[in-house]
Design a protein that fits this description.
zinc, binds N-carbamoyl-L-aspartate, TIM Barrel, 5-stranded antiparallel β-sheet, binds zinc ion, single chain, dihydroorotase activity
Length: 445
């Protein structure tokens, strides 16, 4: 396949040739009849979203690998990493294998994380093509997988001594170049939640309350404290720590100072407590929405490169499940299809550069999680590509999206959506139509 005259994220205009699923050449001019004339369009590396909840096995009424991965493909996401709070939870070999069978239905490439609970089996997990450990819950969230300090320390230590890559490769050089298992952490310290918040103990009262009370309850201070603890334990053992969904400037700075990597979600980047009233229970998620002041400080850290990547924490729940009182509603919002469109709209407006967006959604996650075939438009890498018209913004509407939940916290905002998404050279999405479910586990090559 030949894509001609595409503008790359850095502004260079190039022809791109694809062969055997990989990028074969990137040149100012390549011979041959183009399959796609991309004049005036931008070509991006496909986005990696290292934090999704596709809900299978166990909760297929919320999402499935098919619907979640179609939503990803239509939003320009070509690799997703699924989190372990399914049923069964992905905490042992049988749980991993069950999820791996279901994930074969994916339209995009994927990683499968293993979780930590009192009865997890690290040896069985490390024996399998695991993406990373995580998200490890330092406080309860959807799935009630919160763990105590001792178990967390134990999990970190096992990552350091997993020897997973030594087992998986005979080549000493390849072994040395690979990282050991990274631990991804949901960092909130429940001891610092504010139980004086009205309605917390009322067991289902506060039906008319909006998500601002949730933000008051799961206080901002709880993040920084948990990040500090995670980073301290991680550095002590020499284990790479990645902090999931950092939502405060304090949390981001603590991760960065401690040598951990971190991600920010689109909802913490674009929404704040000022939106809580309008969102109602649909604005309840963990960690919760923060003040407008903190949101702006988070945005600044995304712009200046302190934040490593954007990841969605795509956490769909049905409308029926959300349409109850604040204290009964499940936490979480969908986001995999709107992440890149929202960021490309920022680039269109000039508030983030195209190069920064590329780093946040592709180059950095590929580097941090050791995926040398992903994340860049470079000869020899996988042809995971997204083509879009940079001026073609449209209104985001839940009913147009492909997640099973059919709603979005970004209703009515502008987004620049892809026209074409390729996974290893295969068309998985084009102008509203889907190709084949070609997704593969990125740790199985
Ligand atoms: N973020 C959320 O509020 N919910 C997530 C779990 C999580 O990421 O903590 C979910 O699985 O629903
Ligand atoms: Zn979480
Ligand atoms: Zn999550």
């Amino acid at each position: 396949m030949l894509i001609a005259n595409a503008t790359l994220p850095d502004g260079r205009e190039r022809d791109v040739r694809i062969a055997d699923g990989q990028i074969d050449a990137v040149e100012p001019s390549l011979s041959g009849e183009p399959d796609i004339d991309a004049a005036g369009k931008r070509l991006f590396p496909g986005a990696l979203d290292v934090h999704v909840h596709f809900r299978q096995p166990g909760y297929s009424h919320k999402e499935t690998w098919e619907t979640g991965s179609k939503s990803a493909a239509a939003g320009g996401v070509t690799t997703v990493v699924d989190q372990p709070n399914t049923d069964p939870a992905t905490v042992d070999g049988a749980g991993f294998d069950e999820k791996a069978d279901l994930a074969a239905a994916s339209y995009v490439d994927y990683g499968i994380n293993g979780g930590v609970t009192a009865d997890w089996d690290p040896e069985e997990l490390f024996d399998r093509p695991l993406f990373a450990l995580g998200e490890v819950f330092l406080a309860d969230s959807t799935g009630d997988m919160g763990i105590d300090a001792d178990l967390f320390a134990d999990a970190v230590a096992r990552c350091a001594t997993s020897n997973r890559n030594a087992k998986r490769s005979d080549d000493a050089a390849a072994r040395a170049a690979e990282h050991d298992v990274t631990i991804t952490v949901h960092a909130e310290d429940a001891d610092l939640f504010d139980s004086s918040v009205e309605g917390v103990d009322a067991g289902g009262a506060g039906r008319d309350a909006d998500a601002d009370l949730w933000s008051a309850f799961r206080a901002a201070e709880a993040e920084e404290a948990a990040v500090e603890r995670a980073v301290e334990v991680g550095t002590g053992q020499g284990t790479a720590v990645h902090i999931a969904h950092t939502s405060t400037p304090e949390g981001i700075d603590a991760a960065s100072a401690g040598g951990a990597t971190c991600e920010v979600t689109p909802h913490h980047l674009f929404l704040s407590r000022e939106d809580a009233d309008e969102l109602g229970t649909y604005g309840r998620m963990n960690p919760p929405l923060r003040s407008e002041e903190r949101r702006e400080a988070v945005f600044e850290r995304v712009r200046d490169g302190t934040v490593d990547m954007i990841a969605t924490d795509h956490a769909p729940h049905t409308r029926e499940e959300k349409d109850v009182g604040l204290w009964d509603a499940p936490s979480g919002v969908p986001g995999v299809e709107t992440m890149l469109p929202l960021l490309l709209e920022e680039a269109r407006q000039g508030t983030l550069s195209y190069e920064r967006v590329r780093d946040l959604i592709a180059a950095n996650p590929a580097d941090v999680f050791d995926l040398p075939n992903k994340g860049r438009i470079e000869e020899g890498r996988d042809a995971d590509l997204v083509l879009f018209d940079p001026e073609d913004a449209r209104e985001i509407r839940g009913e147009d999206l492909h997640s099973k939940c059919e709603w979005t916290p970004f209703e009515g905002r502008q987004g620049v959506f892809p026209e074409l998404t390729l996974v290893r050279g295969e068309v998985v999405y084009r102008d509203g139509e889907f190709g084949d479910a070609v997704g593969r586990n990125v740790r199985e090559r």
